Amino acid sequence: MVRLITHNLLACHAKGCTSNNFPLQFQNVQIELKEAEFNPTFLETFMPKLEWKALVDSAKEASATISRYILGNTSLPLEQPEMLDEEFLKNLHHVLLEIHVEEGIMICPNCKHNYPISNGIPNMLLAEHEIG
Amino acid sequence: MSRPELQAPPEIYYGDTEAKKYTKNTRNQQIQADMTYRALELLNLPPDQPAFLLDIGCGSDEEGYIWTGVDIAPSMLEVALEREVEGDLFLQDIGQGFGFRPGSFDGAISISVLQWLLNAETSHPTSSPPHRLHRFFTTLHSALRNPSRAVFQFYPSSDDQIQLITSIAQKAGFGGGVVVDYPNSNKARKVFLCLFVGGGGGGQQQIPEGLDGEMVEDGKVRFEKRRERDLRKDKSGKRKSQKVVDRDWILRKKELYRKRGKESVPRDSKFTGRKRKPTF
Ligand SMILES: C[S@@+](CC[C@H](N)C(=O)[O-])C[C@H]1O[C@@H](n2cnc3c(N)ncnc32)[C@H](O)[C@@H]1O
Ligand SMILES: [Zn+2]
Prior knowledge:
Chain A is of the alpha+beta class. Chain A contains 5 helices and 5 strands; from the N terminus they run E-H-E-H-H-H-H-E-E-E.
């Protein structure tokens, strides 16, 4: 159940890995879609926390493996919009909260540490020499 | 039997068997649930905004708001999955620190977990308790929004342990202090570490008062303060799935847990409260 909302908050935490360590790149992902209740207030308060470009890119990466017909509309504007209309918020809701990455790997763009995802749960454990 | 954290590392102690046992024990679940609600209350979240929370050492908890959970025991997480909990889960050793970006969460709670960080598993420098606590608190501090709070219920086995934990938390940038509920009751006494980022949010920067003495007649835990907040309803009159923690939600959940559980919260304390621990 890694959803893009949490993926967007997650940087690599291996020892010494402090720059260019976000966003973790998806590889070989399997996705499930689960409907979630639409909550525009939550989305609006959450928006300032998002790294927008990372979200747009990760949505693309995650959706590369699944047909658009199944996945639904994941298109987000390249810039975070100022006016939040209903259609935009619905797309954002879908991308952030309804796409669940169930299997795959998240790879740190800097140190290349692999964080495997199994059963929807990312394994964030580090080996002894990787602990900061 | 000695305390769990002295018997085995957490991911071993909470193996398949214990994880099932732990989550099937309704009495235990009720106690955990009550402490969770108290911790949420101490978080003092703004009533009119949805909050995104971190649950540290979440076990298999089911909750009612928008949250992310981390735990080191795969078996506990598996049970959580079976229960189809709503939040995202991470397999993570909190003593290794978090990688969450600055300001990710509006608050954090942790129930019955912190004492697990007080035992070294290996002789490697990164596994000494002070090192792990330091790593944990510094990365947690940065993952929290300013202002916000992190509330931990835990089981210290000495004042020295409380001292160690609070001094490292302070070095990591947290304000706040320890709140002891029902300090004079063996059964009901609970220790909460209430940490503030910035002013901690919610107006005053004071450490909340611990509860004492009076539990109301039916054994329900008395709440420090009532959160006045109308439930938002949509047009159909249905409650929006705001999943904000409010008092009504808490009370409903508590009812539910009580129905599942056996007895009510211990109602033994008629003592007057001792002054709570000094803050730092
Ligand atoms: C007593 S259980 C509490 C579970 C849950 N918070 C509750 O209230 O029911 C303690 C939990 O802490 C977790 N834990 C212990 N040490 C940990 C660590 N270093 N990192 C993450 N989780 C840990 C255990 O795996 C276990 O699920
Ligand atoms: Zn890295």
